[in-house]
Amino acid sequence: MKIVLTGNDLTVSDVWEIAVNGAQVEISPEAEAKLEAARKLVYELVDADVPVYGFNTGVGWNKDHKIAKEFFEDFNRKLIYCHSFGVEPEASEAEVRAMMAVRLNCLLLGYTGIQPAVARRYAELLNAGLHPVVPEKGSVGEGDLTPLAHIGLVMIGEGEANYKGRRMSSAEAHKLAGLDPVVLGPKDGLAIVSSSAFSAGEAALAIKELRELVDMGDIISCLSLEGFNGNTSPIEAGVMAARKMEGQAKSAERMREYLAGSDIYGTYPGKPVQDPLCFRGAAYINGSLRDALEYAQKYLFIQMNSTDDNPCLLLDERRIISNSNFETTTLATAIEMLSIVLSHVSRMSCYRMLRLVNPELTKLPRFLSHDGGQSHCFGTIQKCFASLDTEIRHLSNPCSVDYLSLSGSIEDHANNTPLVVQHLRQIVKNLQYIYGMELIHACQAIELRKRQGKFNLGKGTAAAYEAFRKELPLYTNDRPLAPDVKKAYEFVKSAALLRSVGEAR
Amino acid sequence: MKIVLTGNDLTVSDVWEIAVNGAQVEISPEAEAKLEAARKLVYELVDADVPVYGFNTGVGWNKDHKIAKEFFEDFNRKLIYCHSFGVEPEASEAEVRAMMAVRLNCLLLGYTGIQPAVARRYAELLNAGLHPVVPEKGSVGEGDLTPLAHIGLVMIGEGEANYKGRRMSSAEAHKLAGLDPVVLGPKDGLAIVSSSAFSAGEAALAIKELRELVDMGDIISCLSLEGFNGNTSPIEAGVMAARKMEGQAKSAERMREYLAGSDIYGTYPGKPVQDPLCFRGAAYINGSLRDALEYAQKYLFIQMNSTDDNPCLLLDERRIISNSNFETTTLATAIEMLSIVLSHVSRMSCYRMLRLVNPELTKLPRFLSHDGGQSHCFGTIQKCFASLDTEIRHLSNPCSVDYLSLSGSIEDHANNTPLVVQHLRQIVKNLQYIYGMELIHACQAIELRKRQGKFNLGKGTAAAYEAFRKELPLYTNDRPLAPDVKKAYEFVKSAALLRSVGEAR
Amino acid sequence: MKIVLTGNDLTVSDVWEIAVNGAQVEISPEAEAKLEAARKLVYELVDADVPVYGFNTGVGWNKDHKIAKEFFEDFNRKLIYCHSFGVEPEASEAEVRAMMAVRLNCLLLGYTGIQPAVARRYAELLNAGLHPVVPEKGSVGEGDLTPLAHIGLVMIGEGEANYKGRRMSSAEAHKLAGLDPVVLGPKDGLAIVSSSAFSAGEAALAIKELRELVDMGDIISCLSLEGFNGNTSPIEAGVMAARKMEGQAKSAERMREYLAGSDIYGTYPGKPVQDPLCFRGAAYINGSLRDALEYAQKYLFIQMNSTDDNPCLLLDERRIISNSNFETTTLATAIEMLSIVLSHVSRMSCYRMLRLVNPELTKLPRFLSHDGGQSHCFGTIQKCFASLDTEIRHLSNPCSVDYLSLSGSIEDHANNTPLVVQHLRQIVKNLQYIYGMELIHACQAIELRKRQGKFNLGKGTAAAYEAFRKELPLYTNDRPLAPDVKKAYEFVKSAALLRSVGEAR
Amino acid sequence: MKIVLTGNDLTVSDVWEIAVNGAQVEISPEAEAKLEAARKLVYELVDADVPVYGFNTGVGWNKDHKIAKEFFEDFNRKLIYCHSFGVEPEASEAEVRAMMAVRLNCLLLGYTGIQPAVARRYAELLNAGLHPVVPEKGSVGEGDLTPLAHIGLVMIGEGEANYKGRRMSSAEAHKLAGLDPVVLGPKDGLAIVSSSAFSAGEAALAIKELRELVDMGDIISCLSLEGFNGNTSPIEAGVMAARKMEGQAKSAERMREYLAGSDIYGTYPGKPVQDPLCFRGAAYINGSLRDALEYAQKYLFIQMNSTDDNPCLLLDERRIISNSNFETTTLATAIEMLSIVLSHVSRMSCYRMLRLVNPELTKLPRFLSHDGGQSHCFGTIQKCFASLDTEIRHLSNPCSVDYLSLSGSIEDHANNTPLVVQHLRQIVKNLQYIYGMELIHACQAIELRKRQGKFNLGKGTAAAYEAFRKELPLYTNDRPLAPDVKKAYEFVKSAALLRSVGEAR
């Protein structure tokens, strides 16, 4: 698979393909032309000798220092050096690929004036599988200079890289890959580091999984509702139309499809008019997640397909202009909102599990015990999902506005986008575990309900149930739970649930 | 002024007019017709004797209790009683008007089946100025049943009300206003309490002021930039086009208009290439506020113009359907994001003030002292805006997901929208103070800069500067600061700054 | 009542007496002597002309400015002026008295060198009932300069004051009280403002009420346990001895006393071995509150009885020494911990109420309905205590470390003690409401249980029950709940519950 | 090294020795006797057939199920199974040793009635180096049942273990170690899982490092102060005596010792009276950390040397009593306070670094550049420590009170102690990095200051400086910073700084 980068249309799915599945990349001819034109302009401006930030001046507080032409290489190398101070843990190779893909794509818009050879090198390294070692910590947003510098370090033949499954020096990796390290010229250092590609790349990975999770959430809610034998009135089309909220209407519509033909539409004597809110509101809160996700995705797409470089080279105007285009505060706060909504989604899932083990509500055995209540079964696992849910809640505490004024009163704003995104990544992981556990509960309830008498599932949920049961049989108290939990998590993470109902992202 | 309510097009400005400026309201004929049709259906359903939540059944855990026809009045009165447990402080009369206007508007969509006379009564009370006493605390979202019950209490002639500036019993107020209390029939109690009109009404008041604040923020940023004599490159159109972010592009465009003709476009020897981020990024963070505000407004508008009632009467289908349309989680989390963005906006303003008193950066006297640095002046006021900023930061901590499972495992979700909105209201107030203080700083800096030599302001900023200077002269250390701070706050709160540049919301 | 202040032994009860009950104050002769000796030293140091911060130099960033002798009055007046920038709301008169009492007491240690006449003036104003108007906001901790400056402003005859129930100018109030405003000399301005007396005074009021609440918590837990007819094994002495935790052992001991003679020690067929943790752990969590309270009280006592002035005059060494004794970070973080523990205490109380209305657990009518379950009763009030509990949780978010670097890089630490303390004050108020509601629940349950058959309460709880029942009869669904909630709150706030069992704080 | 466990006197240093340095353990004879006596009582109670929680009844909601004698083994094995649902990541072997040591020690008090052979097995596994694989997530506090169950799983010959550097099945590990798995009898399962040993063990490791960090903090503050050439007046003994705060007095005393003989006591023309608060308040905030640490240590010691088992076997009374002794809320909230104080400590360190690179304050080259300001040097590393500091701030958000009500309304309190402790562990690690960076800054400043002319360090600081300089030379912009940062971190983590001044913990 080969993905052509243009600077204008990189999607989260593309990033996932490149990062996780190792897709190759190619630069579009139009983009190549833009790179060349921009570089030409840079040299003309060097000759014109106008002071431009980070170009022929120092950076940060040192912006009043002038850099003479002959020191460009030295200046740019040292600029890479002194931004290379990242702290463990190291990003995975997939994460490094994601950030390289995003950085390359944004460079293609021609606003940086980077050497075309350096830009091309991102593609070459991606296609060769030569992955710089990048520590994750050290950026406050406002450009992820730290992690990106570690990529630059490897590009110039220093630092360490992973290549074909082995960690080695950059020099060795280059040799094995048949590449010479690059030599930096004016503005190259800044073009390498001055970007939020670390945040955007990691965000793309998280959002890709979240798009799957929100869709799987609708399926899982349906399975739990059938396990609970609850009410479908809250997802009726008429009710949704009256409310005018698009997100929840979409989730409700999907749920109606999955449940088509289910015995849940039947009734029985004494059936309560209304279920607990965790069931009744499932489509509504999944809908809130859709609303928030749409907002976050909009700004992530812009982030991956516009320039975040400072200064910005305007080809038409033949100027380099200082700016704050590295600001990612809308994206950071969008993700913070998304994290808060996810804490609602997670808690709803937990409550559904708590209700599913309550015989008073389900008419099923207490704790979904296969033997009618003698065994411990689902009584204790609650501590597991509850602790993961609490961690989600903690991770959803915002941190974007917590910053120090740096660099001699100059860098007096930050948004901590990298930390915000890493929190989201952990939230996604925890939710994958929690949804895995909800699947265990829902399918256990369904199986016990089927044993009580015929109970047909919906068209979609039947397929989902079968797929999950292939992975995991009924839990009967005769084995430790941990391996089941792990398997269910992997089932969710792989998005097998979507494929089971004939969907794929 | 008279505002016609239709159920479909109530804006935050309308709510402000009704709530704060005492505008009268009128129900549109189409809405009247819908109310009648819905009520007719209710009685037909009563005769059909189908169990419907809160209608001929109990509510919450008591949903399994059946209510016989002859007890409808008693049941609905007691339903009002036992939701009337609000806790101080009391909402202002403007706040009560806001929630009544919103509740009325949503009723007009015909999804509740309320007695038309009861719906009309909201309009009659608003137009008579008879305002129920409503305690603010006691709702967890998922319908603001508590505060709304206190309105119902007054409607049936109990509890207390404010009427023509005096607090009195509901009975007395009705007498003086020439009205008889209403008598409740089936579904009326639930229609009165089952709504988020308290949250939505308060949110409308906050959002109205925020819309003004975001626009004033652009003006204030310009004044500070002139006081600082900083750079305009970050707000150039070319830079904004390259970034593709709409919010920041709009703020930048507005700033360019205000600054047209300013001496700030001139340069001087040794002028730094770049300013501190609080100046450089002003349009960008104001833009992030625009982005978040647009999202929040979208969902607030839906909230004020759709049904949030449970159960929901569907005229076409001739049914009453249980649902979760009272869910306001998208709105609650949108406001939580808005609050986080506001903490960025506030901190940017604070940093601009900190930079404006730094002679190294401004070439103006330290602490903007009129006498060249001997006086204390603006050294100490920093503690004031810093403490308000810290409070904003604290208020922006989310709380929507912190809830208990109530009502016997049934109400196991909440979003605390009222608390979220009240936090926003306090944030708005603090920001009005902080912006007032920034105006004091910016104008002090401009005046001192003018004294150093001719310095022409932009077209818009000149007007703004003059308007503010009419309120407050140069600060010369010869008086306590508190009254100045209060005046500047009131100047901002009144939106006089917008009017000074020929804008009004 | 007259309280003699020595600088060494002011307690929270003393502060309460002075602040709330209007006790008079007197300065001890030893303290008078210290004040005189310190002032003498100040004048000798003035003559020696050594540069000392805020004494003959400016303050903050202006610390490099020298102040000549002849400008002392002017300098100190202006120092008061430009710290007088507090923001609404205004402190209550009780709060103003509390902070004045604490400030005076600390001055008596002789480390400030303030004019003895100025120190005495605090006592004179307190005894005359002349209370400066003090806005609450504007201090970041590190000395509550802002609110304290407003006291200084009134002392010099400016600003506004409350006197005998009326608000008036300071000048008028002085005239009516027969006092002349003071004239400030060297170091007086700083001695007036450089203190954390605002935080400490408010903290003293909060802690005084908390000491009562923790004791009442033991009684209320007992009443709820009897209403629940739960188990006493968790409070047995042997269990407590095995655990070695002092706080919980004390609460358990007290609970055993209150319950002496109760029918709760009896058993019945099918009685569960263990109760929900909100009952089982009541003494344990009340104990955690005791633990945290002891820690906070220790540091509050030091704060009220040591110097927090900078610079600090050392009589023995005959020097004035710059320092950071205004640091109150231990106290601020102790209160933040206390707030977190209170959020546990509050939640435990809420859960007890949720359990008390569950017939499956209590064998009492659902929602403690007097008529066997037909009425709404205690189903809806849950939203009220839950919303107050959520607010407590939000208020317990820490904010001490959220600060800006002020005053030209000099004031680069803060702890926001005033905001932290105000959060605690609101938490205390909410908990008083919540405990009020728990009393309503517990006594309702007890009364219904008594109706089921004889059920004798413990020695202490019987007295408490009777006292509360005198205030509030059984709730029978025939009235709005709000007035009951208010009464119960006032019962708790007045500590009547303690007096009912023969205890007083 | 062999550590004798008695149940009464296990210290954090002991835990560190056992966990990290592989010390062997031995059970004291008195403890052995207690174990035997308790077990004897258990069997007598089994015969007496009294219902006791988790002993001859089910656990949690299943507490109403009775367990017959002949099913003890099966019941206890399944109890282990269904608590074994932990989620990644896995605890390190050191962490597993820590929790085993703590669990064993508490068992020795004889309150559980565990089989002596099972208790002894903890010692045997520790001494053999057979370490169960334990996933870290899955406990909400209130007993760390999940992680501890994984130890039990290995004890009965199931699950996985690490043995001599290799991961293998429990069965294989037992075989290689020459041990037979244990067979569980009555109450053994609960005795294995019902404990907070996971939290306590991890806390012990964190507190051990914190004790070192607080002492190193005093040294580092001194080095920075010398680098800054600041004032010592704030740490004078007279000032500390006036304040009466023990923690800060101790830090100040230590700082005076380290600085004895330093040229910092000299003065120079124009030396400011006062330094920024990050220097002036260093001893004070380090002191606040001492205060909080003392509180936390007190309760951790109790936790490690008392029983946290439910039910609790009282030998004297010959009874098993249900209780809540697993409550660790005082400890959890103490650690939450500690984390908040650490966020202050961290921020102070960051500000000291920000001040040390400011030439206006230090008269040293901007950004401590060795070549007079041309190089980037310490301008960019600020993003690194700032981002770690922001993460600390986020980690210090409390989460103890965020929980769900589990197990059918029975487990309706939690404190999330494991998550709280893991946050502390990460905070400690980040602070070790930050302190490493402060050392880099301080020593760079000192070296540059020495180059400006003779500057003698204090007795203690000279030794510390030399020791650090042996690890890391002056930074001259000619290399990436990351390896330096890592080295400095390891220097701090190893506590080499303490040894350099002749101290060891």
From TrEMBL, chains A, B, C, D:
User: What CDD domains does this protein map onto?
Assistant: PAL-HAL (cd00332)
| Record keywords | Lyase
Give the Gene Ontology MF terms in alphabetical order.
ammonia-lyase activity
Q: InterPro entries, alphabetically?
A: Aromatic_Lyase, Fumarase/histidase_N, L-Aspartase-like
Pfam families referenced in this protein's UniProt entry, alphabetically? Lyase_aromatic
List the coiled-coil residues.
none
Return the protein name.
Phenylalanine ammonia-lyase
